[in-house]
Amino acid sequence: MASSMVTSSQSPTPPRPNLAFRRLRGQRSPAEFAAAVRRAAREIGESVSCDARYVGRVEAGEIRCPNYAYERVFLHMFPGRTLSDLGFASRASVRGRRGRPTTETPGTYEPYDTQDTQDPDETYDDYEESDVLRRAFMTGGGATVAAASLGPLGLALDAKAAGRPVRRAGTGEAGALEEAVRRIRLLDDRHGADGLYQRAAAPLRAAYALLDAGATRQTTADRLHSGAGELAISVGWLAHDSGRFDDARSHYAEALATARFTGDDALEAHAFCNTAFLARDAGRPREAVRAAQAAQRVARPLRSARLMSLLALREAGGWAGLADRTGCEQALVRAQTYFERGLSDTDPEWMSFYGEAELEGLEAQCWSTLGDWRRAARHARRAADLQDPHFTRNIALYTAELADDLARGGHPDEGAAAGLRVLELLGEVQSSRIQTMLAATARVLLPHRRASGVSAFLERHASTRRTA
């Protein structure tokens, strides 16, 4: 991290933790509190990119006084309080030092403190882009903060941000890119997409900077193209799962273009697979069917039965959205038939999430879409029971599906109990998809609020929404 400029007569002093600000955060995680700051900013027409890192720096005392935008937001959030009440020093006491403009968005500034020597409305950022990249996968919530060093990827983005030529990539850069994809998938499996999406954009930019620079060997270039495409899909999935459908569509299209540019059938099948899933969630079921069928055509030469099984499930989801029960059932039978052929060495690495639990979960979604709540609940329950405990996000997803199916199928008490289990997991999982499902379940259960189990769920759900 860049250190602040001091004169020779000055000696840096260790920061004093801001305990007052920490108390105001209360039981919310840094990521949850940062989300509340961003919402408050929108309420008053401000724009701040507050994240868990910023909250941590404030609480550690590294930010002695916020800039003017943050000041307005904080005073809006805590009416009647002054900056001093929030644990900050006066603006006058922190003047005399100047940071650097941010490199994230040309022409804009995202200041973490006001250390201005000229116009007090002119504010600056004091962190380095390389530090942002090294922390690209940090996530808050109840989960342990996780970070991944991206090594050569960080160097690529540092060079591009500084306007220097990016050197041609070698095996080290290709390996770092492949590891970045694995890290994102691992953290998404455990914690959900919401805390990861913005941070994952930095390594994606670095990946395409490496592609632009070229590679030392053709084999390395092929690895870079494949890795960049897979990273685009991973970032697209984070956007998808956090409700940013337009962003997801753009990332998937980027991956598809990369696949076709290099003739990479495996990458093309993966891009079509995710496009089909997105189309279903976005209310375009016919597009979901077409994309899933295109994926199956591309994937057949790859000889992966598990991949063909998943793609048949994507097609089934589209048919369910079209209310075509026959088409859905036929696709489900194909999915089960392919799945029973077992694993093989030709299965793509990214399919590590796809096991019996996911098969059951996706089938549950199909029956739910068709309005067969009893059958949907049976498959959702099996999915939650079968899921590996390390896949916290999927356990929460399947249990949320179960809660909704039970609630709609005339079992409000059981639905509420399942909903409470999901709420227990939300300290570890950040997924807009799951939160949206729970909100829908709460609306279904509202007419049954006098039942003790239902009232407990509704109260807990309302409380969680207020503190999110």
Task: Give your account of this protein's structure.
The protein has 468 residues and is mainly alpha-helical. It has three domains: 1-102, no CATH class; 128-263, no CATH class; 353-468, Serine Threonine Protein Phosphatase 5, Tetratricopeptide repeat (Alpha Horseshoe), CATH 1.25.40. The chain has 20 helices and no strands. It has helices at residues 19-25, 30-43, 52-60, 68-77, 129-134, 152-161, 171-191, 197-213, 218-241, 245-262, 265-281, 285-299, 305-321, 325-339, 356-369, 373-386, 392-408, 412-425, 432-445, 452-467. Helix 9 (218-241) runs antiparallel to helix 10 (245-262). Residues 102-112 have a biased composition (Low complexity). Pfam families: TPR_12 (PF13424). Residues 1-11 have a biased composition (Polar residues). It comes from Streptomyces pseudovenezuelae. This is Transcriptional regulator.
Question: Which characteristics define this entry?
Answer:
468 residues; mainly alpha; 0% strand; flat; TPR-like_helical_dom_sf
**How many runs of DSSP E, i.e. beta strands?**
0
H and E string: HHHHHHHHHHHHHHHHHHHH
- Unreliable stretches (pLDDT < 50, length at least 5) are 1-12, 95-164
Task: Describe the sheet with the most strands.
Answer: none
Give the C-alpha Rg. 24 Å
Structural class: mainly alpha
Q: Categorize the overall geometry.
A: flat
Averaging pLDDT over every residue, what do you get?
A: 77
Query: Which percent range describes the beta-strand content?
Result: under 5%
The N- and C-terminal alpha carbons lie at a distance of: 30 Å
